Amino acid sequence: MLYYAIVFFVIALIAAALGFGGIAGAATGIAKILFFVFLALFILSLVFGGLRRR
After folding, report:
1. Which of 3, 4, 29, 54 sits at a 20 to 30 Å CA gap from 38?
2. How would you class 30 by CB atoms within 10 Å of its CB: exposed for 0-12, middle for 13-18, buried for 19 or more?
3. In this structure, are residues 9 and 28 in contact, taking their beta carbons and an 8 Å threshold?
4. Which family does it belong to (predicted)?
């Protein structure tokens, strides 16, 4: 999932450089959402993984 967040971020950078404001904004929004979902899942896996080992 982090891979997709990075891909959308790169798409947003390229679109912004070429002047496509709407596409860049949409890709940035998608990248943010995917990044925070990845971050939440990562923290949950750390917490539940630590609980399982005890």
Report:
1. 54
2. middle
3. yes
4. Belongs to the UPF0391 family.
CB 23, CB 15: distance < 8 Å: yes
Question: Per 3-state DSSP, what percentage of the chain is helix, strand, and coil (rounded to 5)?
Answer: 95, 0, 5
Query: Any idea which residue has 């450089």 for tokens?
Result: 17
For residues 12 and 23, give the distance between their C-alpha atoms in angstroms, rounded to a whole number.
7
In this structure, what DSSP letter does residue 40 have? Answer: H
pTM above 0.70, yes or no: no
Token pair 């949950």 in the structure block, residue: 44
Chain centroid to Cα 22, Å, comes to 18
Q: From CA 13, how far away is CA 19, in angstroms rounded? A: 10
